[in-house]
Amino acid sequence: MPTMLKTTLRRLDLTDKFHILIECPQCRRLYKPMIRNHSVQCISCGVPLFSHPSRTIFLRLLGKTPPTPIPKSVSPLRLISAAIMYLVRQPGMEAELEAWEERQIPPPGEYHSIQDGQVWKTIKGSDGELFFGPDRDRDELHIAVTFHVDWFTAASSAFSASYSTGALSFSIPNLPPALRYRVHNLILSAMTAGPKEPDAEELQHWIELLVDDLLLLYHLGIFTPTPSRKQGRRCRVVVICTCADHPAMCKASGFADKSHHQAPCTAGRTKVDDLYSDTCLAGGCPARDYQRHRELAVEWKALESQKERDEHFKQHGARWSELMRLPYYDCVRMTVIDPMHNLLLGVVKTQWYSRWIKGGALRADTKAGTKRELSVLHRFL
pTM for the complete prediction? Predict the structure, then answer.
């Protein structure tokens, strides 16, 4: 009979599948857990990675060694390749991952699912052929994933200090919508400890590890037994988009946020003073180009001092993202704001009411009956 909770969970096979990495408490760089030298310091900032418990008088009198030093901060990580290998072995999952091909194709101009979009139709595999094209190798299982990043704060009291914990996760849009967001079909790959969120540069330490794994899944894939092929089937994976709230998507994809004077928009090329001009509101804002965004990000990365990087970012609003190492990924085209924040939490309402209606861009009809913009929109809707 086990006497410890950890032993009980292990015997019931209820242990998690995470690797526990050592995290620098200052710069948040990640290290492998197999560090034997407990006096080691972070190679970037020189901060000790381990806490050394003091050897009490009682321990000294007994002649016992002090407790083993423990990391000051740790971070869980589960590679997406391990999660995919587990998922595709589950009964019925392999068929559900390919069920999207049996959907009814909508008329031209209508979009019923992510498979109807141009990114899904045009993204290419490592062989240069369409990743989801009809002529792809049917012996392989091709899977798309959506990258999610978000932080949450559990406020227990109005007087307690804030503590923000983050999650880096993936959903699988191959699955039908009814299955896509069920907990057992989501992949939690990493978590960031509090009390503060990592900034845009610190977040790249986690994304770097995920991208290393994603490159392997793209070029080589993983070979694992599946219900339909007991001898094994190769699975390849691409990131179809990053879906997050605005602060998280800016951190993940190397953008500036909405307060940046030179580049406040992730999709268009405009300055903050022109963001709500008639030209921009009418759709006249030039589209942001990913190649130019990546060039600026590479320039930023090549700068040696933090001061130079800050000045470059202040001027151009672009910084390096590890997602840019994915050869098929377009940070501009494939980064979208998530529906929860866009619809359920009022981003659209804020845009329409606070900026367009209260700002006078959309006006109600006059008392004399003159039709204005709001009535036109109401008829359209």
Answer: 0.83
Would you report the helix, strand and coil content of the chain in percent, each value rounded to 5? 35, 20, 45
DSSP structure string for 276-342? TSHHHHTT-SPBPPHHHHHHHHHHHHH--SHHHHHHHHHHH-B---GGGGSTT--TTTTEEE-HIII
How far is 260 from 100, CA to CA, in rounded Å? 40
Which uninterrupted H or E stretch holds 197? none
pLDDT along the chain (381 residues), means of 10: 69 78 91 85 88 67 73 91 93 92 87 91 93 89 95 70 86 93 92 88 95 96 91 94 91 90 85 79 82 95 93 94 96 86 68 75 78 75 59
| Amino acid present at 108 | P
Question: Kind of pairing, strands 233-244 and 141-153?
Answer: parallel
Q: Is 307 exposed, middle or buried (0-12, 13-18, 19+ CB in 10 A)?
A: exposed
